[in-house]
Amino acid sequence: MTNFQNFFKQYPETSAPFMHKMLEDYQIRKPFAGMSIAHNVPLTRTTLLKIACLKASGASLTVTNPSFIKDSPQCLDVLSREGVQFVPLNRLKGSFDFLLDCGAELIEQCHATQGIVELTRTGAIRYEQISDSQVPIVSVDDTRLKSLETCLGTGEGVYRAVSELCPESIADKRILIFGFGKVGTGIAYYFSQKTDHISVVDMLPERLSTIESRGYEAISAELPKQVEDAIKQADVIITATGIKDILSHSYQHEWFADKVLANAGAEDEFGFNFSDSEILAEKKPVNFSLDEPTLMPFLDPIFYAHNLAIEDALNNQTAGFRALNKSHDQAIIQTWAQYHQWTLEQLNQIF
Ligand SMILES: NC(=O)c1ccc[n+]([C@@H]2O[C@H](COP(=O)([O-])OP(=O)(O)OC[C@H]3O[C@@H](n4cnc5c(N)ncnc54)[C@H](O)[C@@H]3O)[C@@H](O)[C@H]2O)c1
């Protein structure tokens, strides 16, 4: 028998302090009593804590699952035991007080009477283009706290996955990363705890300066000979540029022989010259080979912010697109840092 309570035991306060605090608060205040909410966020075991908080808030909840995620029978079973309605995305229609969205997938088929909250960059871009919205649209992607998930959480997940799948220890291996955006930054940070040999390729001069200032070797993607040498010297090569086929388009396949190869991007960044079996996790974003691609402590603050943004929209009903209130953003980062024993200086150095 599993229910929401079991998942709060599985992810105790040490791992999900924000969710535990929100549950307690919503059970007392019932801030969304009488409101209807449609919830479209990947339905995983971790998300069940977020959904439990919304149920405790008194809202009438309809849960769906984004088109790119397979339904988990275990999660559907828990929702059914808890009396939370699940409707497949292609059948979800109608009017709700709030849409809690991921990737702007509810935009076509559902209507919001009080507000919309979006979780991702792709979705924020779509919602930002709506010029005649009658309700607030709050993005939790345009925040610093999102880096806790995208930079630290993904970096840790990619590090954990490569370490588990790699036949040899990572210690002192030569790591080459393509792309020093939010994801690449976190990957470099976690690998730098195990080896001094970190090289990073990027296009942008300001990124190359940051790479150097962090003590890594910076290689400009504009200098093909330097990239070729770095590829040939590397033991482990990880892509995080967000660009499909980038390595097949730019570099020769034979330079990559006998290396551990991993993709962290949503697209296949190694591309058409590489077979699935040459890349860890068969070209999927490598952390998705793990049971928990991103650990709960990194998801907890963004789940909290996504629910909290409903109150942001209720408190400031100005219609149109905006980021989550900065004071909430800063407070969440500060609290997260205290819970998990990071200093703000450490976080500022990584983000
Ligand atoms: N695995 C996961 O769990 C996970 C989580 C979040 C995002 N992602 C994916 O990771 C990818 C990267 O996301 P991001 O947010 O870091 O993107 P980003 O845009 O912040 O960073 C991409 C970086 O790649 C650099 N770049 C562009 N062309 C390059 C080239 N030819 N060679 C080297 N560097 C180049 C850019 O200058 C930039 O610094 C995306 O596909 C994203 O969807 C994966």
**Overall form:** elongated
Oligomer: single chain
Residues in helices, as a percent range = 40-55%
What is the CATH class name of the largest domain? Alpha Beta
Outline the fold blueprint:
Blueprint: H1 4-10, H2 17-29, E1 36-40, H3 47-56, E2 60-64, H4 73-81, E3 85-86, E4 94-101, E5 110-118, H5 121-128, E6 136-139, H6 146-165, E7 175-178, H7 182-192, E8 198-202, H8 205-213, E9 217-220, H9 224-233, E10 236-239, H10 246-250, E11 260-263, H11 296-315, E12 320-323, H12 326-339, H13 344-350
Parallel strand pairs: 1-2, 1-4, 2-3, 4-5, 5-6, 6-12, 7-8, 7-10, 8-9, 10-11
The structure holds nicotinamide-adenine-dinucleotide.
Summed up:
With 351 residues, the protein is of the alpha/beta class.
Notable characteristics:
single chain; 351 residues; alpha/beta; Rossmann fold; seven-stranded parallel beta sheet; 12 strands
Walk me through what this model shows.
- The chain is an alpha/beta fold and 351 residues long.
- It folds into 2 domains: 4-139 and 295-350, Rossmann fold, CATH 3.40.50.1480; 151-289, NAD(P)-binding Rossmann-like Domain (Rossmann fold, 3-Layer(aba) Sandwich).
- It has helices at residues 4-10, 17-29, 47-56, 73-81, 121-128, 146-165, 182-192, 205-213, 224-233, 246-250, 296-315, 326-339, 344-350, and strands at 36-40, 60-64, 85-86, 94-101, 110-118, 136-139, 175-178, 198-202, 217-220, 236-239, 260-263, 320-323.
- The strands form 2 sheets. It has a 7-stranded parallel β-sheet with strand order 3-2-1-4-5-6-12.
- It starts with a helix and ends with a helix.
- Nicotinamide-adenine-dinucleotide is lined by residues 150, 154, 157, 178-184, 201-204, 207, 221, 240-243, 246, 264-267, 285, 287, 293.
